[in-house]
C-alpha cells in the first residue's frame, strides 16, 4: 500500500510539473510575440521626406551643356563646388574667354573673396558672337570691361527656386531672369548649364554676353 501511495504521489507531482512548464512556455511565446510587435511598431520604415528631395534638387546642375563638363577633376561639378567662383571657372572648359577677361579686369580676388554671388557666365561661343575688333577693344578697356563683367554678377547666391525675376547686378543695374524648370533665359540669353555650385556662388552658363 505504501508503495502504491508513493507511486501515485510521484505521478501526480510529474503531472503538475509538466503542466507548469507548458504554461511557462506559453507565457514566453506571448512575451516574445508582444516584444516583436512592439519593436516593429516602434521602428517604422523610413521614407524620404519632401525636404530631402527639395535639397537634392536644389543642388543639382541642369542643362544640355552640363554634359560637356569633366566628370572629375578641375571643371567637374564636384571640384567646382569646393572652389571659389573665379578659380572654379578657370577649370571649366566652357569659360576660357570669360576667365581671361576676369583676369584682364583684375576681378579674380574680388570674385573669389565675395561671400555669396550668382554669376551668369557667357561661354566662349558667346564671346565669339562679338566682332573680333569690338571684343579686342573691350578687353583693352579695363573700365568698360569691368562694367560688362560685373553686369553678369548678382550679390547673392540664387538657386533655381528664386532665380526668376529681376536682380540687381554688381554694376548697379538689373538683369531679368525668366523661365521655369530647367529652361531659363537671362535678358534673352539662354541658360545652357544652370545651378552649378561653387564654394561661394551659383553659376548659370549662358549663350550670349550681356551688355549693360
From TrEMBL:
Residues 82-210 form the FAS1 domain. The keyword Signal applies. Residues 26-77 are annotated as: Disordered. InterPro entries: Adhesion/Biosynth-related, FAS1_dom_sf, FAS1_domain. Residues 1-22 form the signal peptide. The keyword Signal applies. It comes from the Bacteria. Keywords: Signal. GO terms for cellular component: extracellular matrix; extracellular space. Residues 31-44 have a biased composition (Low complexity). GO terms for biological process: cell adhesion; extracellular matrix organization. This is Fasciclin domain-containing protein. It comes from Nocardioides jishulii.
